[in-house]
C-alpha cells in the first residue's frame, strides 16, 4: 500500500491591513517597521489601531506585531 503524498503550501506571516489580508515572507519586527513598508517616508498625519486599540506614535517602535494581527492605518488628507 502506497503512502499518499501530502503537499503543504507554506505561507509567510499574515497581517490584516485596512481589512485586506497581506502576506509577508518575514513579519515586520514592529509597528514602525510595518509603517515604513506601507507608507515610506511618512510619519505625520497617521493614526494607527492594532487589534482595535489606538497606538500612539510614541510607542510604534515598541509595539510588536504577531501573525494575524489586524492593523488599521488612517492618513489625513487635505481638501474641502
Automatic annotation (TrEMBL):
Database matches in Pfam families: ThiS (PF02597)
CDD domains in the record: Ubl_ThiS (cd00565)
Name of the molecule in the record: Sulfur carrier protein ThiS
Signal peptide region: none
Amino acid at each position: 500500500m502506497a503512502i499518499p503524498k501530502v503537499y503543504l503550501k507554506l505561507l509567510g506571516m499574515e497581517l490584516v491591513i485596512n481589512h485586506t489580508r497581506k502576506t509577508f515572507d518575514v513579519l515586520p519586527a514592529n509597528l514602525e517597521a510595518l509603517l515604513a513598508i506601507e507608507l515610506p517616508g511618512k510619519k505625520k498625519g497617521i493614526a494607527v489601531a492594532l487589534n482595535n486599540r489606538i497606538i500612539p506614535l510614541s510607542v510604534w517602535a515598541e509595539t510588536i506585531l504577531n501573525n494575524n494581527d489586524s492593523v488599521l492605518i488612517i492618513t489625513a488628507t487635505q481638501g474641502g
